Amino acid sequence: MLKVGYAQEIITPPTGVDLAGYFNLRLNEGMYDDLYVKVIAMEIDGKRTAFVSFDLCSIVSTLFDALKAKVDAEFGPGLYENMLVCATHTHTGPRFQKLEKQENEATQYAFENTVDAAFRAIKRAFMNLLPAELEATKVYNNPYGFVRRYWMTSGDIVTNPGWRNPNIDKPECDYDRTINILAVKQGGRIAALICNIANHGDTIGGSLVSADWYGRFVQAVQTEMKTSLPVMVLDDASGNINHFDFHQDIKQTGYHEAVRIGRGYARIVMDALENLEPVKADKLEIKNTTVTIPHRQLSDAEVAEAQHILDTVPDIKKEGDFESQDLANKVPAALRYFAQRALDCKAKSKPSHECRLTSIKIGDDLTFASLPGEPFNGIAQAIREASKSKYTFVAELAQSVSGYVPMKECFARGGYEVQPGVDTVAPEAADAIIDASVKNL
């Protein structure tokens, strides 16, 4: 018998906490809306799993470790490894990456509150287990996501080349526009939703906290269904996907964009609910594996080029948000920043790091697969093509820490995502993750 329970907790940080997602310091000055950690727990014939989603840009290793310690202490060893823990990827949540180096009381409080809130939600979700049924559907419709790497007429690849840029030729590739939807039914009603959507959570900018379009999506679904049902978004592989339509000449940064996109996805999901079909949940299979991800190794020529940039490009500070498109626009601060990253890559990188991959299979038709860091969408496509399940949910920023994971062929083409830095991945990383994930299935 399948049982499902749900719980959530607010993890909105206090003011003064640095916000993640950009290269410059952005201290929290308030909020548009709250951040949450959400948990949907499941049990089938005594075997348990849970989906834990944080409204964060990413999850640092210290957070993974702290949560595991609490779960192990309460439930014993094993449950934590059976769960899928991920982030939505909002770029207006707290930055915990430099926690060890900070003496910031507000940041320390936010970190500890986030861990404690997640533990409380996990414990309460399992206390809330009740008999349930599952129904699922999917729709190939994602009009708000765009491949953000473009072939230019010069033959180069540029990330975020600018609106109405006449030198844009075409996107580097296509991507999987599938939106997977899982509905939990209890007492004859939809009691919870898990939706798998590929897009970046970077619509707002500035210094106010927000769950980005993920939060506005949840609100729109709840408003239309006239109930505060649990709604969880698992961010599909989106390392090369964002919401910018560069063929338009419109303002696509601001809270209005989070609202527009969130409501748009809500409309798509609501229309798709009429096509829900039962999913048999008669067994729960969970498999973990560890994959070794090799790190980037720079040539002497690449190091010399980086040093030349630092020697010749003037040190001019950039006002306002420092974003990836500044590299495409050859802003001096961006050129120098990435040149220094290249030197650090050569001097400070380890040979590799290890990541945990988790596959959760419910019945025969429903599979969840985790991916570390920000993988390119082609990785998720390869996993779905290999999966025998009718519905395969792929969750990025899950289980382990990593950076961008581009496809192998992208490294020679350039662009923001393949810029070297400390412990950035090597070209072979994507294939290693695909191979390990497929074996996990």
Question: What can you tell me about this protein's structure?
Answer:
The protein is α+β, with helices and mostly antiparallel strands. The protein has helices at 61-75, 79-82, 105-127, 212-225, 255-272, 300-312, 325-328, 332-348, 377-386, 429-440, and strands at residues 2-10, 36-44, 47-54, 84-87, 130-131, 133-140, 146-147, 149-152, 157-159, 168-171, 178-186, 189-197, 231-235, 241-242, 277-279, 284-294, 352-362, 366-370, 374-375, 391-395, 404-405. It has a five-stranded mixed β-sheet. Strands 13-12-11-6-15 form a five-stranded mixed β-sheet, with helices on one face. Strands 16-17-18-20 form a four-stranded mixed β-sheet, covered by helices on one side. α9 (377-386) packs parallel to α10 (429-440).
Produce the secondary structure layout.
Layout: E1 2-10, E2 36-44, E3 47-54, H1 61-75, H2 79-82, E4 84-87, H3 105-127, E5 130-131, E6 133-140, E7 146-147, E8 149-152, E9 157-159, E10 168-171, E11 178-186, E12 189-197, H4 212-225, E13 231-235, E14 241-242, H5 255-272, E15 277-279, E16 284-294, H6 300-312, H7 325-328, H8 332-348, E17 352-362, E18 366-370, E19 374-375, H9 377-386, E20 391-395, E21 404-405, H10 429-440
Parallel strand pairs: 3-4, 12-13, 18-20, 19-21
Antiparallel strand pairs: 1-2, 1-5, 2-3, 6-11, 6-15, 7-14, 8-9, 8-10, 11-12, 16-17, 17-18
Helix pairs in contact: 1-3, 4-5, 6-8, 9-10
